[in-house]
Amino acid sequence: MKRLPLLLLAGAMLFSLTSCLEDENKPDIPFEVAPTVEPHTAPAGTFDVDAVRSMINIKGQHFDLPLPIVKLGKDWEFKYYDRKDYGLKEGSGYATLYYNGVEMGTVSLENCYTGREKDSVMYSIAIKTSDCDIYGITPQISTIADVEYLVGQPESEDMVEKPYTHIYHYGITLGEDAHGIARGHNIAVSFDEQGIVDFVSITYSDLTQQTQQ
């Protein structure tokens, strides 16, 4: 009978320790991630950001944005940009994304704090390789006509210097907030001199956060 109180005490201590460890693994700042959506398509020639963000494929792996990095499997790795070198504020970050050691693209991160990078959430990604696509728009393969068939005419277009000739922009762009997070629901598609897609980027972040004026 004397052992029962000791066992109960030990159990209580273990529960307390576990709770502390769980608290340590929780983000320092509460962060809500937009709900995922089932992969779907919009009518041809229509830009629907929810459809686009639901259909991101990298090396045969499907995911959508925004996405907590902890949800990616063990085959995925990140190389974080140095915060000081790139002038990144606490709460934001950049990283190079790797799949089985192969570089796959650059991602922008929110909820990214020094020492707590595992709590980061991917909200933007840029891809440049032909084994990746965003909503069927595939670097090195898709043409201007392909892009316009999938998502229609751009809302704006930038003429730029070589190696790109112009960039199509779709969706909402609000600018950066106080943490340096790009606020928007948009994609950008860059073309080379032959009218072939060179890169595609997508951004999906919380539009309710205030941006800098």
Structural account:
Keywords: Signal. This is Lipoprotein. It comes from Ruminococcus flavefaciens. The protein has about 210 residues and is an alpha+beta fold. It has helices spanning about 5-25, 50-55, 145-150; strands at about 55-60, 60-65, 65-70, 75-80, 90-100, 100-110, 120-125, 130-135, 155-160, 165-175, 180-190, 195-205. The protein has one domain (about 50-205). The longest helix has 23 residues, at about 5-25.
Label this structure with key terms.
single chain, 36% strand, nine-stranded antiparallel beta sheet, globular, 213 residues, alpha+beta, Lipoprotein, three-stranded antiparallel beta sheet, signal
Briefly say what this structure is:
Residues 1-21 form the signal peptide. This protein is an alpha+beta fold and 213 residues long.
